[in-house]
Design a protein that fits this description.
Blueprint (H helix, E strand, L loop, with lengths): L4 E6 L5 E2 L15 E7 L2 H5 L7 H5 L21 H6 L9 E6 L5 H12 L5 E5 L4 H10 L8 E4 L3 H11 L3 E5 L16 H18 L2 E7 L11 H5 L2 E6 L6 E9 L7 E7 L2 E4 L3 H5 L10 E8 L2 E13 L7 E4 L3 H15 L6 E7 L11 H13 L7 E3 L2 E2 L5 E2 L4 H10 L4 E5 L12 E5 L2 H7 L1
This protein binds thymidine-5'-diphosphate (TYD) and magnesium ion.
Length: 455
């Protein structure tokens, strides 16, 4: 047997170092290196499931255009929101990481998916966290079809792969990667070394045996997946299920996807009957009261391939502090500071003695610059204590010289707003559609003054 080897792996970026040191050479983070015992050499391990290593090497080279593309038929997960986030369905042989904080609904989502999929294909659900009884009780309570899904309570990766080789599933769930361990790696389950090696081993297994594999990963306090970023290197697709503690709604977003676009947003609602898809997310983020309050404005953001209507609120209040607060929730702090400067310089509105709070309703995170004009008008509306009309939508990017710049997909955004009953819009001139939209008055603006005049 080969001599046991050690490597030192950075928890932040996952790079290897031959010896311990205080700072990671690759990313510059301090005190992030952890020892990883490699145990036996990888050759010894690779023999566990047949067909690994040897075959891959002997396949030889092929021309790119001669590679058979028909081997990638996707299949649906049964949830169209999940399919969309994955880029159109599940690809056989892919490894998909589902991340999220505890209680986000990862196990529920996968149990619902697997119960349904097991009706048509061979499926195994491996649970290392909950007992089989717990899972069975949940499945019964949710009234899921349970007769075909194979369950396994196991935390040894070698054992799981051994069983899976005999069972030949088309799809597998590993819940969760943090409790999995390998005999060769001499550190506790959940440590960098175990997570990294287990995930790599399972991913190889998935590729070799053409099994679609879902790995559940917990998010640590600082929001990173499984502590180390190491997981993201080996998997094909990384999806994050996000939900504010008390909110019913869960949003799902992919951060890495080898088979589709990233930044698609999927929206689910956690109900008494498990997770339900939200077909019309705009409706939930827009559920407003009867009265229109100052400081509130509706904007259309672009999420992946579809528009989404969200409400943005600003509160501008006289500050008691020498250093007034600028607080943005769901928006970028720097953007808020920049817009205040633009408003002062080009709109003549002085807010240096005011606290400014901005918030996106419903816990959505808005990162695009198309929200600039809406935020700006929301602040003006609150500052002047003058409510904007209920049926108004606003979007557009604001430049440093006070110009309003067009944003992509203007026409689709306006159509979505019209569908939800909005009748007026203030948008960049470049986004005004050539054909008028039925029932909607669109005001195009190029300068900040024009936007302020329009309201
Ligand atoms: P779970 O899937 O166990 O979360 P995770 O695996 O991501 O840790 O979901 C647990 C939460 O979901 C729990 O707080 C209760 C809630 N829940 C419902 O509200 N309704 C349901 O039908 C189910 C199954 C769970
Ligand atoms: Mg769970």
């Amino acid at each position: 047997m080969a001599k046991a080897k050690s490597a030192y792996v950075c928890n932040d970026c996952g790079s290897d170092h031959p010896r311990w040191q205080g700072q990671c050479n690759a990313c510059g983070a301090w005190n992030t290196l952890t020892e990883v015992r490699l145990g036996a050499t990888s050759k010894g391990r690779s023999d566990r499931f047949s067909g690994y290593a040897g075959d891959a090497a002997s396949a030889g080279v092929q021309l790119l255009n001669e590679i058979n593309l028909e081997e990638l038929p996707r299949f649906s997960s049964g949830f169209s929101e999940l399919d969309r986030v994955l880029g159109g369905g599940i690809v056989p042989g892919s490894a998909i990481l589902i991340g999220g904080s505890p209680g986000a609904g990862k196990s529920t989502l996968l149990l619902q998916t697997m119960c349904r999929l097991s009706q048509g294909m061979n499926a195994i659900y491996v649970t290392g966290e909950e007992s089989l009884q717990q899972v069975a009780m949940r499945a019964n309570r949710l009234a899921l079809p349970t007769d075909k899904l194979k369950m396994l309570s196991e935390t040894s990766v070698e054992q799981i792969c051994h069983i899976a080789e005999k069972e030949k599933p088309a799809i597998m769930v590993i819940d969760s990667i943090q409790v999995m361990h390998m005999a060769d790696v001499q550190s506790a389950p959940g440590s960098v070394a175990q997570v990294r090696e287990s995930a790599a081993y399972l991913t190889r297994f998935a590729k070799q045996n053409n099994v679609a594999m879902f790995l559940v990963g917990h998010v640590t306090k600082d929001g990173s997946l499984a502590g180390p970023k190491v997981l993201e290197h080996c998997i094909d697709c990384s999806v994050l299920l996000d939900g504010e503690g008390d909110s019913r709604f869960r949003t799902m977003r992919s951060h890495k996807n080898r088979f589709g676009a990233v930044n698609e947003l999927g929206v689910f609602a956690m109900t008494g009957q498990g997770l339900k898809e939200v077909a019309n997310p705009s409706a939930i983020f827009l559920s407003r009261g009867e009265e229109q309050a100052p400081g509130s404005v509706v904007l259309v953001i672009w999420e992946g391939t579809r528009p989404l209507l969200v409400e943005l609120q600003a509160l501008v209040d006289h500050s008691q502090l020498g250093n007034p607060r600028r607080i943005a929730v769901g928006l970028e702090q720097n953007r808020l500071a920049m817009l205040l400067a633009v408003l002062h310089r080009h709109g003549g509105l002085q807010m240096s003695d005011q606290d400014v709070f901005a918030n996106v309703v419903g816990g959505v995170k808005v990162t695009e610059t198309g929200a600039d004009l809406s935020l700006l008008l929301a602040m003006v509306s609150s500052f002047r204590d003058h409510a904007l009309p209920r049926d108004l939508v606003v979007f557009g990017e604001v430049g440093l010289s006070g110009e309003i710049r067009p944003v992509p997909n203007g026409g689709e955004r306006l159509n979505e707003a019209a569908k939800h009953g909005f009748t007026r819009a203030i948008v960049p001139k470049g986004n005004v559609p050539r054909q008028p939209i039925a029932g909607m008055e669109v005001i195009g603006v190029t300068k900040l003054e024009q936007a302020l005049e329009a309201i």
